[in-house]
Amino acid sequence: MQNAPFPLWPEQASTFAWQVDALFVYITLICLFFGVGSVAAVIYFALKYREKRRFAVPDPIHGSDLLELTWTGIPFVLALTIFVFGTIVFYQLYSMPADGMEVYVVGKQWMWKFQHSTGQREINELHIPVNRRVKLTMTTEDVLHDVFIPAFRTKADVVPGRYTHLWFEATKPGKYRLYCAEYCGLNHSGMGGWVYVMEQRDFDNWLSGNATSQSPIEAGKELFQAKLQCSSCHLDNGAGRGPKLTGIVGKPVKLNNGETITVDETYLRESILNSQKQVVDGYTPIMPTFKGQVNEEQLLSLIAYIKSLSGDTSGITAAPAASSTSSSSTQGASPPGAGNSNAAGNTQTRTTTGGQANPHAKDGR
Amino acid sequence: MESILTEAQIAAQSSPEAPKLNYLTNGHSVASWLLTRDHKRIAILYLISISVFFMVGGLFAATIRLELLTPHSDLLDPATYNRVFTAHGIIMVFLFLIPSIPATLGNFLIPIMIGAKDLAFPRINLLSWYLYIIGAAFALYALMQGGVDTGWTFYAPYSTTFSNGYVIATGLGAFIVGFSSITTGLNFIVTIHTMRAPGMTWFKMPLFVWAHYATSIMMMLGTPVIAITLLLMVLERFAHIGIFDPAIGGDPILFQHLFWFYSHPAVYIMVLPGMGVVSELISSFSRKRIFGYVFVAFSSIAIAVIGFLVWGHHMFVSGQSVYASLVFSLLTLIVAVPSAVKIFNWTATLYKGSISYETPMLYAFGFIGLFLIGGLTGLYLAAAGMDIHLSDTYFIVAHFHYVMVGGQVIAYLGGLHLWWPKMTGKMYSEFWGKISAMLVFIGFNLTFFPQFLLGYLGMPRRYAAYPEELQVLNIFSSAGATILGIGMLLPVIYLTASLFSKRNAGANPWFLPGLEWRIPSPPPTENFEKTPVVTWEAYDFGKDNGLEIKEAEDFFS
Amino acid sequence: MSAKVEAHGAEHHYHPPGLQHQFDDMAQQKDSTSIGMWAFLAQEIMFFGGVFTAYLVYRAKFPMAFAAGSNHLDVVLGALNTVVLIVSSLTMALTVYFAQKNNRNMQVIFIILTMILGSTFLVVKYFEYKEKWQDGLVPVAGWNHKVSPEEMTAEEHAAPAAGAHKLNAESAAYEASEEFRTKARRGEFRWADSSLARQAEHGHEGKGFLTADEKSGYFTNGELDPQKFESKVRIFFWIYFVMTGLHALHMIIGLGIMAWLLWRAWLGSFSIDYYAPVEISGLYWHFVDIVWIFLFPLLYLLGRHFLAGHGG
Amino acid sequence: MSEHDHSHGHDEPHIVPIPMYLLIFGILMVGTIATYFAALVDLDGVFPGANTLVALGIAFFKMTCVVLIFMHVWYSKRLIWLVVVSSFFCLAIMFAFTMQDYLTRSTGTF
Ligand code: HEA
Ligand code: HEA
Ligand code: CUA
Ligand SMILES: [Cu+2]
Fold first, then answer.
1. pLDDT at residue number B2
2. Which residues have CB under 6 Å of ligand 3?
3. What is the mean pLDDT of residues B41-67?
4. Which residues are found with C-beta within 5 Å of the ion, ligand 4?
5. B164 and chain D in contact, CB less than 8 A
6. Distance between CA B146 and CA B127 in Å, rounded?
7. For helices C276-295 and C104-134, angle between their N-to-C axes, nearest 10 degrees
8. 3-state DSSP call for residue A153?
9. Does any CB of chain B come closer than 8 Å to the CB of residue C39?
10. Secondary element (H or E) of residue B416
11. Crossing angle of helices C276-295/D50-65, nearest 10°?
């Protein structure tokens, strides 16, 4: 196939690719049976019974119930076999392994952001080890997108406000195309990239050598000090309009409603997104809410940075919502904004703000 | 019962003179057209309007194919490309294909085929055309202002929040056009129930009428749902309340449910009338009653009913519950069976027929071949496990062009050729007719077959730019589209030319038994001089059909 | 067969008044109009069905928020309107009766009664809408009555921004602004009666009955989040306004039809031989009544018992 | 299917007597009062969703009365029955098949 002027069959690079292809072949055989059969019959009849005299009237034939029954019954049965086969493959593709290597995916107009559970983040590229189950937990910041990797024969939409999942186990090291397959606006066709499948050893190397890009803490620092101007209120000497943030993580903080909470990732997250909700005792609630202004990724960086101010440089391992401050009656309370997230059983660990008011929208059109 | 042909009509059949006063000559003022309540004139109004929109949609298609000649978005930037394919989809679906056969051929023929003077509600029929025009005006306004870029599916939250096209105008346009479709369906249902001539029982009706009956059921029960869905979308976009906005707990997938609840039945609205036409074509040119008439008739109804139960097959990858997906998958595979029944019965009709290769018959052959491919590829998509790979790729694009263009458009062209002499009284050029039918068939396959391969290779749809290795197949496709375009352009030319020719067709150029062939061409305004009394079966070419169809030699010698 | 009436022959045949040219006789015409109307109503059912589906989905997801929203509606006015519509259905049915009895005067009287009742419904609806507008219950930002500083209570002046927020808040600047303060308390989107969610959390004998969606939909870190709760109530009001708005629109169209019918009845057009217009207008009117028969419990009543069972 | 028959001119319409109308009217009023009070009682102790069921049950009953008598379906041809039943059937399909997605979603992917 490599010699053909153009490809005719996509590469098979996942454990279930062959199953999908087998299903394809199976349906193709059925289609050939009916398609070739019907077309051959039409051509044969058309030639054989071509009119002998202009507009001659042949003897009428009214029909045959036996024939009708046959050609209703056979397609019906074959259709059911297609259903069964299709269901088996569907089950393979869409039942998530429990032990998969987790990768978090955030779609955004028009890029893919991946984060490994070890903290590495990549954009429009995904590095994964070969022969290992990988489970994607996916969401989006804005509209629908769709992760599609043809060589793996799988895809799934990402939906704002909730998590969807995808899994695969690559079988061959190599470089495979990644597409966004759900229309998402202007640069939909540009929202693609590559999946790099590597031997485990190479993958480990890649993981450790991936220091070239800015670490979350550095990114957070930049946001805190320059981009979002947090530092204009949160001064290091505690003299600012907001409280000093150094060394607060893991310590209790007293709120103006009398409660005392231990500062953790969730609390930090809430303080940034819904600053008015929990107000530190002795301060006025002047901190603006940053909901809609920081995206999920920036939030992670900010939290990582604030944690580093308390000497915790582990980065973001667990996501805020999972660090169960949840009260007992609401186990699995999902992150804010994840309004209709995948219900209670959803114990996975990243959060998103879901869609926000959107700057692109023009009113009244 | 004696023959219902009047002396004059028999004369008209054998002499090339058209009768003096027919529906075309009965009034020449503009008002006599724009305020007409004659179903035949309304059909002509529709014919003209949808032809215009077909051309516009075709031009957009040409632009798409031109852009896709190269892998990069060089001819159009992505923003424009998105607007172009959206305009193409919306115009072709809402403004062309849905009204195509029902509003033109159906409007013209249903009353005649069942022996009625008009549809039950002529004024509502006219209203339906005006609704169509108003809706189209909204869509055109949006187009002029810069277009919409949501795709014809208007998925939320892109359409409600993020798109900066003219979504509201377009949505309202489609909303209004929806009501034109509802009114047409309503009129057909009532007409078929109450207006049949004496003796015209249900099982004496041509299958064309049966198919339209099934279509009308879907129009009546499905279209209001898209109307309310589009209304909700428009309101949401206007007021940003969040019913489809996940940020506050709304669910974008609800939009998809509501959209496809209509739009899947709509795809059958877009093919059943074509199947009705093909039944007529096959019977006419093999000069036989359709094999298994009753089964073909009921398979239309079965498609209409089961067609309401399968919409979720468009949402296998959307995040819908997997159990729901499986239920929808099963039902989708079941709804394919009645289509199979039709294909087999048509084939069996040819057996021991007396088959002639007139232009309309070539289209019928084309339909069988192309719809087979389109329908069978639907089976791939219906199998949930297969659809995961294929969804939103060019495989889908190829599938639906095979069923919509290869099915309905081809059937529409075939029907237009069959009844052109009846509608206009003129005969077109058989030579050019055959040439164009061949061009369409070849061009069509060249355009869309490579897209199946592209789809399996993983080329996503709605892409302005694509990977380089896929260029060769795309070039085939664009080349095919050129041939297809020429093939589609030819009928416009020679059919128009026939209007000015002297080749009068006569009442019954092909010696067919249907009621419509027993009245002059073009028919008089009241259709029948005297309400006919039907004593013969549908497609009765035999001796006792009340019509002295002499064998052709008598006329040609 | 031979008894068929030729509508448009060369000579003049018997042509009953009101028979349209496309029909052979009155029976055919009457059949056609009534089947046509029923088919139209089938269409209407599916049209409303779309919003009912949305209602169903969201109510299944967020019953407590819907209950809270429902409790904001004026159940007395709702019940009043139900009664008004049922009476109007009776008067409409009697109109048909008197048309069949060839009684012109009674027809006219009952059409007028029907119209009066229909208008009453709309007036009541108007006051309900106005109340919603004043209470800031309209789910569209900026479409509510702005509480002016003069209208505000001392309490409201004292704590303008405490815990205050606006959905989709763009910035703190907004929250600090004059405009925002004037909306506080009774302003827009202040409808969260989250006690219901709290109650559902604890439920009967400690068995909470929040749905899975509610658990993630109302709470932030285990804390009841009024803002999130409100956004679900907002969905309720959105559906409330779409449903009742479409219904009111149908009422208005119905009144138009009634006016036309009144005119025709006044002229004495209807009799036992020809009353199809009365009949099918009646069908339409009853249909609109039926829609309300469902809207009333769905919007006004479901969820009331939560208040009853737990003392509010 | 019931058909319009060309052979007879007018089929006599059935005139529903006034007492019948009043009876239905009475039922509707009673139904309205019943829903109102049923809604104020907490029936969830009986079984969850009892309130909803009662409210919708009464509404359905009221609707049936209106359709059958006020709208004369009881006295109409089979075709009218068919139209009524099939449109509600279609609505039921929309509800049921949409909800089958929502109600099974929380179980996750298989
Ligand atoms: C005229 C329009 C039309 C018609 C008739 C059909 C007919 C069918 N369609 Fe198609 N379809 C579309 C128009 C149409 N479709 C469109 C426009 C889209 C894309 C929308 C978008 O996203 O933009 C689409 C998308 C689409 C999808 C969604 C894909 C996706 O987005 O992921 C699916 C999935 O099941 C599907 C299936 C089918 C099936 C099973 C049939 C069946 O009805 C076909 C039945 C016919 C046959 C099967 C052939 C004859 C049978 C035999 C010869 C016997 C052998 C049969 C058996 C063994 C059963 N279609
Ligand atoms: C009835 C429906 C219909 C019809 C007839 C067609 C006809 C054609 N379509 Fe269409 N198509 C759709 C419905 C239809 N399409 C839909 C619903 C979509 C999805 C949109 C979306 O994703 O939202 C789509 C999308 C679509 C795509 C995919 C775009 C993308 O996903 O990026 C492509 C690409 O090749 C395409 C090509 C064509 C071609 C080549 C034709 C040809 O068959 C057209 C041939 C006809 C002509 C060329 C016109 C002939 C007349 C002239 C040429 C006259 C010239 C005029 C003057 C001289 C004044 N179509
Ligand atoms: Cu993202 Cu398409
Ligand atoms: Cu479909």
1. 33
2. A 107, 110, 145, 180, 182-184, 188, 191
3. 95
4. B 264
5. no
6. 29
7. 30
8. coil
9. yes
10. helix B410-424
11. 170
CB C226 within 8 A of CB A274: no
Which one, of B79, B224, A39, lies nearest residue C48 by Cα?
B224
Phi-psi region of A291 (alpha: psi -120 to 50; beta: other; left: phi over 0): beta
Looking at the predicted structure, is the pLDDT value of residue A255 above 50?
Answer: yes
User: Is C260 a residue whose pLDDT tops 90?
Assistant: yes
Q: How much is the pTM?
A: 0.84
| Cα atoms found within 13 Å of the Cα of residue B150, Cβ hemisphere only | 30
Q: Is C3 helix (H, G, I), strand (E, B) or coil?
A: coil
CA contacts within 13 A on the Cβ side of C138: 16
CA C1 to CA B1: how far, in whole Å? 11
Q: Is the dihedral of CA A194, A198, A202, A206 positive or negative?
A: positive
Mutation pick from C81, C86, C270 vs chain D, by most beta carbons of D within 10 Å, is C86
- The chain-wide mean pLDDT, for chain B, equals 90
Residue C21 C-beta-side C-alpha neighbours within 13 Å: 13
Name, of A285-299, A313-327, D3-17, the range with top average pLDDT.
A285-299
DSSP conformation letters of B181-198: HHHHHHHHHHHHHH-PPT
Rounded CA-CA distance A43/A51 in Å is 14
- Rounded to whole angstroms, how far apart are CA atoms C210 and C199? 9
* Rounded Cα gap, residues B168 and B177, in angstroms: 14
Beta carbons within 8 Å of C23's beta carbon, 6+ residues apart: B120, B195, C7, C29, C32
Region label for A347, one of left (φ > 0), alpha (ψ between -120 and 50) or beta (otherwise): alpha
H or E segment to which residue C146 belongs: none
CA B201 to chain centre: 26
Q: Residues A323-361, buried b or exposed e (16+ Cβ, 10 A)?
A: bbbbeebbebbbbbbbbbbbbbebebbbbbbbbbbbeee
Of the candidates C226, C217, C244, which has an alpha carbon nearest to the alpha carbon of residue C300?
C244
Q: Looking at ligand 3, which atom is closest to the CA of residue A181?
A: 2
The pick from A26, A28, A34 for probing ligand 1's pocket by mutation, whose C-beta has the most ligand atoms within 8 angstroms, reads: A34
Of B86, B467, B478, B397, nearest to A190 (Cα)? B467
State how far the Cα of A103 lies from the Cα of A128, in Å rounded to an integer.
9
Q: How far apart are CA B217 and CA B200, in angstroms?
A: 21
Token reading at A194: 């590559």
Task: Please indicate whether, in this complex, the C-beta atoms of D39 and C294 are within 8 angstroms of each other.
Answer: no
Contact call for residues C295 and C247 (beta carbons, < 8 A): yes
Indicate the length of chain D as a whole number. Answer: 110
- Non-local (6+) Cβ contacts of C77 within 8 A are C124, C127, C128
Taking the C-alpha atoms of residue A178 and residue A150, their distance in angstroms, rounded to an integer, is: 7
Taking each helix axis from N to C end, the angle separating B78-90 and B39-67, rounded to the nearest 10 degrees, works out to 150
- Tell me the mean pLDDT in the region B443-454: 95
Ligand 2: nearest atom to the Cα of B96: 1
| Nearest by Cα to B374 from B297, B451, B315 | B451
Residue range C198-238, pLDDT digits in tens:
777 776 655 667 777 777 778 777 777 777 788 888 889 99
> Is the pLDDT reported for residue A365 higher than 70?
no
In what order do the strands lie in the sheet containing A145-149? Answer: A125-129, A193-198, A174-180, A145-149, A154-158
The tokens of B478 are what?
Answer: 């664009």
Nearest CA to A33 among A77, A78, A89, A86?
Answer: A78
CA dihedral C39, C42, C46, C52 (to 10 degrees): 160
Ligand 1 pocket mutation pick from B275, B317, B379, B399 by most atoms within 8 angstroms of CB? B399
